[in-house]
């Protein structure tokens, strides 16, 4: 058994799906605008700026202002997509996200790109492994972590359709497509990507493809793992968690985030209250060392082998 | 009631009406805070004349029957701790029943210690932590500019609040986007919670700072409705520039033993102090 996750045939940068979808939305609805913090290139929203000049508002390197201005644009009837690197959007402007967007109930869409350890080599200042824990603790804020370009495009459309504040946490790490063309994302509804009764793996974002690879490894050993894409972290699909606990007897969570307070914590809260079963929570233990995103994911067991090993522990085999 | 949003002539009698209204607001505000045993008298009394002039001096164009009218002019209270003064003003303006003011800070009251847009009509954005309302007001003004609309956005900030970095991010953006329909009023009472602003973190020369950030700046006696009406009538001050009004005020204005005293940032009057304050305010009606 090797330690490497097999390289998929074709990988996609979900920022492309985000930018292309936003261009389509903005072409159809004049209220749609983007707000960026000198992040036109890193969000890939130069596409929107070229397609519809004037619809991207660049506030400069000023994240607090970016979110506040976004909330103000929403007050004035716009549908702003406030977009920037997730570590700066969420950490620097967390109080603005809480007060101006969520508590006010502003119709603001926050899109954190390059989340998790996408900026691997740049170090913990540029990693955004706490953003899920922070944002899911904020009431009234929808938190979505899409897994692939298909889901990213739909999450952006769902955020647009939803009246209220939404945080979409997307990445720049190359991911394979895990959803079929006819996939339909809904806020708050998880999706079972693979059936199984022996154990459940719950993942989101860039780790979903790795969870599916882990299930393949387990199947080779005769273990049938259920794989659930928990793209929406808030509001959480509690029913799917209870079903996983009662029907499969154990849950592994796997996410590109710090292991405290993220998807794993969210699932564990429901499991502890509704249907206690064994769990393993996979993620980063703390500030990460230097290395590429792929290295870090593999190093901390967020790959097929690591997830499969955690599943075996839960089963007790 | 719909005001005409006039920026023109100041009507005879208006100033005296505003003076009386400002006393009404202060009396009601004082009663709320004395009753609730919590609040920020100092900053509310410094701002009372500004609020009254905006809402009852024909400056702000608003309709309490239609608080979500897309074309309304917006007022944002960036210094959210002056909520009681805003609530009193909104009630007198007809946004909700005056009797609701009696629920201030009571369990489940809509009238929280800091304004909540979801519960109080007329509130544009939730504020409380400092440094939030100004950037939101910039966003509101920017939406108007993108729509080429004539609606104006007024934001009232504290002076101590200008120590927050987000305020200067907002000031920079307002100039960059040439938001000449944005009006930032600074309640320059020179006191903050712990001490005088200049001893805490100096702000002067404040007008020069705003000018350096690209704003057209006027200074005014912020406790004089006549002077305030005049400065509001002069809007916009300059083409393509956001407007800053440094309103020089006295914290706790109107009550001798509260005026310009730092301990009255959020001190609560005793029953005796309350009675004396009422006498002073009523006595100032003449």
Account of the 3D structure:
The complex is a heterodimer of chains A (317) and B (286). Chain A is α/β, with parallel strands linked by helices and 317 residues long. Chain A has two domains: 14-169, 3-Layer(aba) Sandwich (Rossmann fold), CATH 3.40.50; 191-315, Rossmann fold, CATH 3.40.50. Helix content of chain A is 39%, strand content 19%. Chain A contains twelve helices and twelve strands. Chain A has helices at residues 14-28, 46-51, 63-75, 86-92, 94-103, 131-136, 149-161, 208-220, 238-248, 263-274, 293-299, 304-315; strands at 32-36, 56-58, 79-85, 109-113, 142-144, 166-169, 191-194, 199-203, 225-229, 232-234, 250-258, 278-284. In chain A, the strands form two sheets. A seven-stranded mixed beta sheet of chain A has the order 2-1-3-4-6-5-10, with helices on both faces. In chain A, helix 1 runs parallel beside helix 7 and helix 3 packs parallel to helix 5. The longest helix of chain A is centred in the first third of the chain and has 15 residues, at 14-28. Chain B is an alpha/beta fold and 286 residues long. Chain B has a single domain (14-283), classed as Thiamin diphosphate (ThDP)-binding fold, Pyr/PP domains (Rossmann fold, 3-Layer(aba) Sandwich), CATH 3.40.50.970. Helix content of chain B is 38%, strand content 10%. Chain B contains nine helices and five strands. Chain B has a five-stranded parallel beta sheet with strand order 1-2-3-5-4, sandwiched between helices. In chain B, helix 5 links the parallel strand 2 (153-158) and strand 3 (182-188). In chain B, helix 1 packs antiparallel against helix 2 (41-56), helix 1 (14-36) packs across helix 3 (83-93) and helix 2 (41-56) packs across helix 8. The longest helix of chain B has 23 residues, at 14-36. Chain B is globular.
């Amino acid at each position: 058994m090797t330690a490497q996750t097999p390289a998929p045939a074709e990988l996609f940068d979900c920022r492309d799906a985000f930018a292309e979808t936003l261009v389509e939305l903005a072409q159809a609805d004049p209220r749609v605008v983007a707000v960026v913090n000198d992040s036109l290139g890193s969000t890939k929203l130069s596409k929107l700026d070229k397609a519809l000049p004037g619809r991207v508002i660049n506030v400069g390197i000023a994240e607090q202002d970016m979110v506040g201005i976004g909330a103000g644009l929403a007050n004035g009837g716009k549908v702003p997509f406030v977009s920037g690197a997730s570590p700066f959007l969420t950490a620097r402007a967390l109080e603005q996200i809480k007060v101006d967007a969520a508590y006010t109930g502003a119709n603001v869409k926050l899109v954190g790109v390059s989340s998790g350890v996408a900026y691997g080599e740049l170090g913990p200042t540029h990693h955004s492994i706490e953003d899920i824990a922070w944002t899911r603790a904020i009431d009234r804020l929808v938190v979505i972590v899409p897994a692939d370009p298909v889901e990213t495009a739909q999450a952006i459309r769902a955020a647009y359709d939803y009246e209220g504040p939404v945080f979409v946490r997307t990445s720049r790490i190359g991911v394979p497509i895990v959803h079929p063309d006819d996939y339909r994302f809904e806020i708050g509804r998880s999706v079972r990507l693979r059936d199984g009764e022996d154990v459940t793996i719950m993942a989101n974002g860039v780790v979903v493809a790795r969870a599916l690879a882990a299930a393949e490894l387990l199947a080779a050993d005769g273990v049938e793992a259920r794989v659930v894409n928990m793209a929406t972290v808030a509001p959480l699909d509690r029913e799917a968690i209870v079903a996983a606990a009662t029907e499969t007897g154990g849950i592994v969570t796997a996410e590109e985030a710090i292991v405290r307070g993220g998807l794993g914590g969210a699932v564990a809260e429901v499991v502890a209250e509704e249907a206690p079963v064994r769990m393993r929570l996979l993620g980063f233990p703390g500030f990460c060392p230097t290395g590429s995103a792929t290295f870090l994911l593999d190093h901390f067991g967020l790959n097929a082998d690591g997830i499969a090993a955690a599943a075996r522990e839960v089963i007790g085999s | 009631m719909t005001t005409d949003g006039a920026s023109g002539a100041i009507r005879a009698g208006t100033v005296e009406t505003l003076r009386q209204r400002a006393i009404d607001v202060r009396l009601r505000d004082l009663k709320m805070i004395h009753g609730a045993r919590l609040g920020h008298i100092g900053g509310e009394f410094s701002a009372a004349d500004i609020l009254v002039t905006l809402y009852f001096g024909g400056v702000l164009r608003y309709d309490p029957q239609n608080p979500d009218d897309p074309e309304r002019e917006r007022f944002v209270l960036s210094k959210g701790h002056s909520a009681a003064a805003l609530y009193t003003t909104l009630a007198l303006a007809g946004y909700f029943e005056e009797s609701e003011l009696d629920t201030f800070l009571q369990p489940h009251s809509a009238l929280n210690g800091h304004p909540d847009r979801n519960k109080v009509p007329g509130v544009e954005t939730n504020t409380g932590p400092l440094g939030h309302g100004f950037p939101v007001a910039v966003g509101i003004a920017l939406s108007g500019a993108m729509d080429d609309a004539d609606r104006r956005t007024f934001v009232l900030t504290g002076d101590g609040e200008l120590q927050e970095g987000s305020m200067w991010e907002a000031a920079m953006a307002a100039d960059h986007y040439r938001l000449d329909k944005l009006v930032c009023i600074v309640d320059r009472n020179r006191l903050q919670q712990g001490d005088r602003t200049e001893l805490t973190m100096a702000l002067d020369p404040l007008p020069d700072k705003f000018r350096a950030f690209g704003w057209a700046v006027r200074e005014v006696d912020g406790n004089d409705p006549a002077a305030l009406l005049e400065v509001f009538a002069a809007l916009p001050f300059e083409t393509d520039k956001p407007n800053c009004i440094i309103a020089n005020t006295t914290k706790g204005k109107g009550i001798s033993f509260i005026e310009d005293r730092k301990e009255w940032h959020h001190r609560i009057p005793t029953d005796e102090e309350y009675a004396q304050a009422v006498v002073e305010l009523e006595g100032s009606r003449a």
